[in-house]
Design a protein that fits this description.
With 168 residues, the chain is α+β, with helices and mostly antiparallel strands. It has 5 helices and 6 strands; from the N terminus they run H-E-H-E-H-E-E-E-E-H-H. It has a 6-stranded antiparallel sheet, sandwiched between helices. Helix 3 packs antiparallel against helix 5. The longest helix is centred in the C-terminal third of the chain and has 22 residues. The chain is globular and about 40 Å long.
Length: 168
């Protein structure tokens, strides 16, 4: 029994892994000269659409974003299995320019942080059904993390359209 306890005590647990600070992501995105952040309140049709895309309401009612010369940056969070995954997106001309997992808090599925996964999102757009117009390969053992990042990418694309539309 003592050996079992010792083995369990020595098993590493994945704590919060910060791969890039959100502030650094924004700085890097805008070449060290980021615009002031904007705030988008999720209400009305926007709130309803985000809820439909996620299958549940988004965790906050307001979302910060950075917009400069038609390019936007978003830092969004979605729960993979049990804990939030913080992901940064850069959107330009209605397509994803960059996806970066910034903070990962789950015990599994951390593979979504690697370029082999995030590079699949480059140039992705929303189709008429608000799905991505590109296929994103799953990662065995990371299905919920993959789903979370895919859903966040759809939200980032949608919200970019909201803040850059002529009616915004």
């Amino acid at each position: 029994m003592l050996s079992l306890f010792a083995a369990l005590a020595c098993t590493p647990s994945r704590a919060e892994q910060v791969y890039q600070r959100p502030e650094a992501f924004i700085e890097q995105t805008f070449g060290g000269d980021p615009p002031d952040p904007g705030v988008l309140y999720l209400k009305g049709a926007t709130k309803k659409t985000v809820k439909e895309m996620l299958g549940h309401r988004y965790r906050t009612i307001r979302v910060r974003y950075w917009l400069k010369d038609g390019r936007s940056a978003w830092i969004l969070e979605e729960v993979g299995k049990e804990r939030p995954i913080t992901t940064g997106f850069v959107i330009s001309d209605g397509a994803i320019e960059r996806t970066r997992v910034l903070v990962f808090r789950e015990s599994r599925g951390w593979e979504v942080r690697h370029d082999f996964f995030t590079d699949q999102f480059i140039d992705a757009r929303l189709d008429k059904r608000s799905d991505l117009d590109v296929h994103i390969d799953n990662i065995s053992g990371a299905t919920l993390s993959v789903r979370a990042v895919k859903n966040l990418s759809r939200i980032a694309l949608y919200l970019h359209g909201v803040v850059t539309s002529p009616d915004a």
